[in-house]
Amino acid sequence: MNNGKLGPDPLVKIENLTKEFNNKIVIDNINLTIEKNTITALTGPNGAGKTTLLKIISGLIIPDRGKVELKTKTGLVYNSETSFYNQLTVKQNLVFWYKLYNRHNNKNIINEIIEKLELKEFTDIKFEVLSSGIKQKLSIARALLSEPGLLLIDELTRSVDFISSEKLHNLIVELNKEKNITVFFVSHNKEEIEKLSNKIVYIDKGRIIKEEIK
């Protein structure tokens, strides 16, 4: 375990992070660094605090104590179909989120992301009829709208078939290598973790119990 010590090129530094909900400690004095251009897996049992940690890093949840130092913008990929509009098409959903992010400096980014994620054939298809794999790709596309240096992913391939999982794995590696996007992802899939990650962080009961550098 690195106990929060700075690596060769840290992109994120987390110090003494603590969060409670209803008098229950969910994140318990965590210290962690995420190095630039790496793919780090976060794993542990249900209720260990994985999703809460992702949301704190992304800024969606404010910690009670401690701090998160970020040197880049973040993009959060989370499994919440209710955050998309069922009656809107793939492109319409992306345009909505683009405007919500108030992005005006790169108006070609939607088409660029659609091309990159191989979503072109689905642009005019409504969200409600998309497969789980395409919905997950759309979640990644939305996260990329902010042009992040850090991609935070909650359960990359949950409810996704084998072929779609392979495509998502290849996409993550490609974004990491070609776009220099650092990835921090939650997974319970041991094979996926071994295949993708440079580092594995194990969390239980809100505490990091081990870090494994590969």
Strand order of the largest sheet: 5-6-7-3-8-9
Write out the CATH superfamily name of the domain at 1-73 and 150-156 and 182-214: P-loop containing nucleotide triphosphate hydrolases
CATH architecture of the domain at 1-73 and 150-156 and 182-214: 3-Layer(aba) Sandwich
Number of helices: 6
Assign the structural class, choosing from mainly alpha, mainly beta, alpha/beta, alpha+beta, or little secondary structure: alpha/beta
Q: N-to-C terminal Cα separation, in Å?
A: 13 Å
CATH class membership of the domain at 1-73 and 150-156 and 182-214: Alpha Beta
- Described by its quaternary structure, the protein is single chain
Instruction: Please describe the biggest sheet, giving its number of strands, its sense, and whether it closes into a barrel.
Output: 6 strands, mixed
Rg calculated over all Cα atoms: 17 Å
Keywords:
alpha/beta, 3-stranded antiparallel sheet, 29% strand, globular, 6-stranded mixed sheet, 214 residues, Rossmann fold, 6 helices, disordered N terminus
Describe the fold and architecture.
The protein is α/β, with parallel strands linked by helices. It has a domain at 1-73 and 150-156 and 182-214: Rossmann fold, CATH 3.40.50. It is 30% helix and 29% strand. The protein is built from six helices and nine strands. The protein has helices spanning 50-58, 90-100, 109-116, 132-144, 162-178, 190-196, and strands at residues 10-21, 24-35, 39-43, 65-70, 74-77, 150-154, 182-186, 199-204, 207-213. It has a six-stranded mixed beta sheet with strand order 5-6-7-3-8-9, sandwiched between helices. A three-stranded antiparallel beta sheet has the order 2-1-4, with helices on one face. The two termini are 13 Å apart. The model is unreliable at 1-6 (pLDDT under 50).
